[in-house]
Specification:
The protein has 282 residues and is mostly helical. The chain contains 11 helices and 2 strands; from the N terminus they run ααββααααααααα.
Length: 282
């Protein structure tokens, strides 16, 4: 009995220390970015194009390029990912084929992002002839994001009690109407959470867009989806490694804009998710 209590105390201490380490590391990183990046933030920095070999000016084309890539990724990956998750959860059987599909999706989530970049270069840029463009980058990032969205959608749908489905079917609703009107609204908070995580990862990735979408320097805003763009993650990499004599504040300020954008979307999603959970109970 005494040994069991000692082990329990150790387990609580180790897991608590691990959680505190993660929270502490995240706070340290966030505070560092804010303190070092805040001096660079100004109206000029957010609304003007870079100039002076990217040592002066702002990052407006970079912000627009990142938004274009992220919105394109969302437009491609959300319909496909959510539909695939619905099929696997509600329609697919439990046979060997379904298990193989789930295994393939899990393996896709573990593929390094640089491999997705090479895949996008071979398929979308060269074979499909899209060249370095927003659409090629968005398609590549969608491939990267799909496993997260599919898995999150399937898991969220599984959390919905089967009693809700049975009650709807007993009242004469079709299976699709049950999914559309009953199951999806109840699972929406989980689906949104997974989707935001996937898209946040896409917004911060550098390797997949390195070969498929980004330009080293471009003052003009994109006019079509078939042009290349500047993007925040790649711009940070260029400023940190290729631009000599650059003000350090610009690098940290660009990182702060990227983190702030991802955080703002996550906060909005968290507020919406909290409201939805209060409205949908079972």
């Amino acid at each position: 009995m005494r040994n069991a209590r000692i082990i329990q105390t150790l387990a609580i201490g180790i897991t608590g220390a691990a959680a505190a380490f993660i929270v502490g590391a995240a706070l340290f990183l966030l505070v560092t970015i804010i303190m070092r990046g805040a001096p660079a933030i100004s109206w000029e920095f957010l609304t003007e194009a870079p100039r002076g070999q990217m040592k002066e000016g702002g990052i407006f084309p970079v912000i627009v390029g990142t938004l274009a890539l992220t919105l394109g990724t969302a437009a491609i990956s959300l319909p496909i990912g959510i539909s695939a998750g619905i099929f696997l959860s509600e329609y697919a059987g439990r046979g060997k084929t379904t298990r193989l599909v789930r295994l393939a999706i899990s393996n896709m989530a573990g593929v390094p992002s640089i491999v997705y970049g090479l895949f996008g270069l071979a398929l979308f840029v060269n074979l499909a002839g899209l060249g370095k463009s927003i659409i090629a980058g968005a398609l590549t990032l969608a491939c990267l994001t799909l496993p997260v969205i599919i898995t999150a959608t399937e898991e969220a749908l599984r959390q919905v009690p089967s009693d809700l489905r049975q009650a709807s079917l007993a009242l004469g609703a079709t299976r699709w109407r049950t999914i559309y009107r009953i199951v999806l609204p109840a699972a929406a908070p989980g689906i949104v959470t997974g989707s935001i995580l996937g898209l946040s990862r896409a917004a911060g990735e550098t390797a997949p867009i390195l070969f498929t979408a980004v330009a080293y320097y471009k003052r003009q805003l994109p006019e079509t989806i078939f042009t290349d763009v500047m993007a925040l993650p790649y711009h940070i990499f260029i400023l940190a490694t290729q631009v000599t004599g650059r003000p350090v504040d610009i690098v940290w300020g660009t990182a702060l804009v990227l983190v702030a954008g991802v955080t703002a979307v996550s906060v909005v999603a968290a507020v919406w998710r909290s409201n939805q959970r209060r409205r949908v109970r079972w």
